[in-house]
Specification:
Layout (H helix, E strand, L loop, with lengths): L1 H28 L2 E2 L11 E2 L2 H17 L5 H5 L3 H21 L4 H17 L6 E3 L5 E3 L2 H22 L5 H22 L9 H19 L8 H20 L9 H5 L4 H6 L1 H17 L11 H7 L4 H25 L6 H16 L1 H22 L14
Antiparallel strand pairs: 1-2, 3-4
Helix pairs in contact: 1-2, 1-8, 2-4, 2-8, 2-9, 4-5, 4-9, 5-6, 6-9, 6-12, 7-8, 7-9, 7-14, 8-9, 14-15
């Protein structure tokens, strides 16, 4: 764990130190988010925090290059180079959108380009199992397609949940920590090869978020912007692909997670994925564009239920931690596989019960009834005497 601790600390420290410099540059060049009816923050806030994260990623990978523990990762594959190139491309896409808004098709095209570079460098799925179904060996072309789709989905899921100070940063930090513990456990028992890039990248990703969070927690001094959220999404996609699709060996906990790389982040990152799915359904039913923003995300609903920004963030952090625990339980205890799917379903039902639109609607109706009753109690109110009629 020493080597992972070093790269984690480098990523966190460099991000923490560079972020104030980045926000000064953001203010100087006018990269500032102004409050409006859709946003929660109340003052203009710089928004290029993702640049500090990218530079910290480079620094942490540079330190890892000199550590003997990670020699096999850099010498036997091109995956670290692919992660660097793909991260640079996708941050450039988000940076362009932060500075001057680009169209949704152009933004997706940039994400596809970054994902393609990642796939060409070797970060692709080899194996895939649908829970309760069959085991598949993916052909090279199908594995490449799944990689591209997964990167785009993950990047946009993190981007959509970035709506409150510290929300996306904390969710990704918790998820990255859980995925690191999962991948480290598999490496420890010999099911991940020593040259697998996933544990290294996810440890760095967790460090990036930990270093950025002190500047991003409410009230935020700086936002990560689309550049940061897309970067974190790509890094999580790369690690889940590398962890979930690289072995066919049996191991406790794999029944529902390890053989299904799409299920790992769906559970650990259940909050942003549920939020993304609800947004797609909601905007499709309304006939609006999927890229059109609204104020119906999970964090908006928590706010309307009376939770403040900090409490709403802590609630969604707690959900991510609970879902992460469900994933890690069978992996570290060698038991509990049969309980996992039922636990996930139960948590999903509870989450839906608390946050579905009917809760907000009922609360608003009750509030309206109370207002009407209060108005009836004080109405009619005596008003000032009428002026005498004029002779004119």
């Amino acid at each position: 764990m020493v080597g992972y601790g070093i790269v984690f600390a480098v990523a966190a420290l460099v991000t923490f130190l560079l972020t104030p410099l980045v926000w000064r540059v953001s203010i100087r060049i006018g990269a500032v988010v102004v409050p409006d009816e859709r946003r929660i923050h109340l003052r203009p806030t710089p928004t290029l925090g993702g640049v500090a994260m990218l530079l910290a990623l480079f620094a942490a990978l540079g330190v890892a290059w000199f550590l003997p523990q990670f020699r096999a990762v850099f010498e036997s594959s091109s995956e670290p180079l692919g992660v660097v190139l793909a991260a640079t491309i996708i941050l450039g896409v988000g940076l362009l959108d932060d500075l001057r808004e680009v169209s949704a098709p152009a933004k997706v095209a940039g994400q596809v380009l970054a994902a393609s570079v990642l796939g060409l460098a070797g970060v692709t799925m080899f194996y895939f199992r649908v829970p309760f179904a069959d085991f598949f060996v993916l052909s090279p072309d199908l594995g490449f397609l799944v990689t591209v789709l997964w990167v785009v989905a993950m990047a946009n899921a993190v981007n959509l949940i970035d709506g409150l100070d510290g929300l996306a940063t904390g969710v990704v930090a918790i998820a990255a920590g859980a995925i690191f513990l999962y991948s480290y456990r598999l490496s420890d028992v010999g099911l991940l090869s020593p040259d697998n890039v996933a544990p290294l990248v996810v440890a760095i990703t967790c460090g990036l978020c930990v270093g950025f969070l002190p500047h991003n927690f409410h009230p935020a001094k700086v936002f990560m912007g689309d550049s940061g959220s897309l970067l974190l999404g790509l890094l999580l996609a790369a690690t889940t692909i590398s962890v979930g699709g690289r072995t066919a060996d049996q191991f406790s906990g794999q029944t529902f997670f390890f053989f299904a790389p799409l299920v790992i982040p769906f559970v650990i990152l259940g909050v942003p994925f549920v939020d993304t799915a609800l947004a797609i359904v909601r905007r499709t039913r309304r006939g609006t564009s999927l890229s059109q923003a609204d104020k119906e995300h999970l964090h908006h609903r928590l706010m309307r239920q009376g939770h403040g920004p900090r409490r709403s963030v802590f609630i969604l952090w707690a959900w991510t931690a609970i879902l992460s625990g469900v994933v890690l339980l069978p992996t570290y205890t060698n038991q509990g596989n049969a309980v996992v799917p039922f636990a996930v379903i139960a948590l999903a039902v509870i989450l839906y019960t608390l946050l579905h639109p009917g809760v907000r609607q009922t609360a608003e109706e009750v509030e309206d009834e109370v207002d009407v009753e209060e108005d009836l109690l004080v109405w009619p109110r005596p008003g000032p005497p009428s002026p005498p009629p004029s002779n004119r």
